[in-house]
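Kindly go through one protein, given below as sequence and C-alpha cells. The question is how this chain folds according to its C-alpha cells.

***
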Amino acid sequence: MSNINLIDSFQEFKDFKNIDRPTVISVLEEVFRSMLRKRYGTDENCDVIVNPDNGDLEIWRTRTVMEDGFSEDDDLEIELAEAKAIDADLEVGDDYIEQITLESFGRRAILAARQTLVSKILELEKDEIFKKYKDRVGEIVTGEVYQVWKKETLVLDDEGNELLLPKTEQIPADYFKKGDSVRAIIEKVEMLNGNPKIIISRTAPEFLQRLFEMEVPEIFDGLITIKKIVREPGERAKVAVESYDDRIDPVGACVGMKGSRIHGIVRELKNENIDVINFTNNISLYIQRALSPAKITSIKLDEEEKRAAVYLKPDQVSLAIGRGGHNIKLAGKLTGYEIDVYREAHEDDEDVDIEEFSDEIEGWIIDEFKRVGLDTAKSILALNAEELVKRTDLEETTVKDVIEILKSEFE
C-alpha cells in the first residue's frame, strides 16, 4: 500500500534521539485511531498495526454480518447481501474484516494527520529533554560552542540539545568562539512557553566540587568529604575538606604530588587561586586556616554576634585581606563569621589608633578603613591615595582629606 507522506514521517522520527521506539509507535497508532474516529465515529472495531522496523502500516476494520434489514449501525455492522457480494462464504454472525487504505481517507485528512504527528513528536521530544536534564541538575556536561552572543553563549551537547551559558555564569576570563569545547555544570532546567530551557554554569561552587570529584578519587569514593566551597569566580576559591580516615591527609590528597591534581582544576577555572584547607569544629583554628596564607597572631571571638577580631603583624595584614579583598571576604563566607583585621600593636610604635581621630573624621569613613585592616594612622599613611581608593569604597577627595588630617598629627 502507498505510504503517502504520513509514513515518511515515521522514517523521520523513528530514530528520534530522545524518544524510544515503542513511544513513537504508540503516538503513530493514536494519530491513525484519531483519523478512524473522525471517519467512522469509533475505532473500537479497528486494529492498527505499525511495523517498528520500516514504518509499514496496516489498518483492519471488523464488522459483524447481520441479516438484511437488521443492521442498526453501519460502522459496526454489515448486511448479509453486501457482505456476500464481497465474500460469498460469509454468513450471519460472522466477522467481516476489511483493510482500510490510507488513500481512502483523502489527501487533506492525511496532511492534517501528518501535521498532528509532527506536533506530537516534537512535544514528546521537548518533554523528554526536560525530564532528562531535570534529573541531571548538578552534573557536569561537556558541549560545543555553537553561537556566541553578548549576554549568553549557545552550547550544543553530544545529541545536539541546546544549552545556555549566560554571561553571568561565565568566569570573567572565559572567551569562547564557535567550535570550542566547554565544560560546565547543569545549574537550572525549566519549561518556558513549552520549550525546555537548560542553564549551565561555570561560576557555581558545585562546578568546582564536581571537578574535584573527577580529579580526586578519594572524594569520589567518599573517603574525603568537601564540607564547603566558596568562590570569587576567576579570582580565588576556598575549599574546606575533611577525612574520616586518619591515614588520609585530605589537603595533600586534593592537591596531589607537586600540585598534579589541582593544576588541572586551576587551568579549567582560568587560573583561579584555590586554597584547600582542613575543616575543623574549632572556630579559632578554622578562621586561622581560612585566612591562609596570612599568619595570625591572635583571635578574639564574639560567638553571639558571629564576629572575629583577628590581630596580625603589619606585614601580614595585606595577605589576610588579599587582592581586592577577596581573601578576607571568602574566609568570612567559609567560616560564617564577620572578620575584622587589626594590626598588632607594638610598644615602641609611635602610631595612633584611627579611632582617636573620630572628632575630625566621620565614623563611617573610619569603619571603611578598619574594614580593610587599616586601623592606625601609620598603616593608612603607608599607602598612597590611589592604592587607598582601590582598597576602600571611598572617593579620592575623601581619602586625600584623611591623609592630610593624619599627616598633621605627625608633623
About this structure: The longest helix spans residues 107-134. The chain has four domains: 6-132, 143-201, 204-279, 354-410.
